[in-house]
């Protein structure tokens, strides 16, 4: 198919939280955009179904499983047939399972985090690289966390070793993608503290008290507010100004 003129998005991890809010924000702010909303069970999210109904033909639900090579390639093939390109891929899907220090976290826990939080975006980029290259303004954005900062580790004393390790690795991967693809805008973006189900679950499972202590210093944004800021940052981003940088929500940069 010939390349369409609409801005085409894929938001991975779109069934709840920040991902769901991103789909809603893009659909509202860009009347001509087409957003593919990916999740393990997209039809199980009533809010996502409502968005697809409200923006019929513009919000499309697709089954996305992190690090599933065949599944990711199938989504890319579908989008390629319909549009001939994709403009923005937002790798938002991620997990944060029970917290723990390095010595008390199982190897299996590390492996699960690495599979979803690192291999997931890698497989996603590999599947969509050709479609991104066909765009006139391609962007690959990975939603990360300041917890993945090695330089700020002493300032964020949360006992989430498997999650933090995976986000540090994700940051490296996306920065490497930036250097390897001189036609692409690619960077890791931290959404800051957001009141999502994942954040609530992390606080509920914490037995160390570290979450409660850090929470005293933070003001949580609602997902819709975070999504509004994120979309603005993404749309204003350029390779020269933003590519390969570790972004925060205030327009600054975090330490790697």
Automatic annotation (TrEMBL):
Provide a GO CC annotation, any one. cytoplasm
Q: Which PROSITE patterns does the record match to this protein?
A: ADH_SHORT
| Example of a GO MF term | oxidoreductase activity
Q: Which domain of life is it from?
A: Eukaryota
Keyword match NADP = yes
What SUPFAM superfamilies does the record point to?
NAD(P)-binding Rossmann-fold domains
Q: Where are the transmembrane segments?
A: none
**Keyword check for NADP:** yes
The alphabetical list of record keywords is:
NADP, Oxidoreductase
| Similarity comment: family membership | Belongs to the short-chain dehydrogenases/reductases (SDR) family.
Protein name (record): NAD(P)-binding protein
Question: What is the species of this protein?
Answer: Pholiota conissans
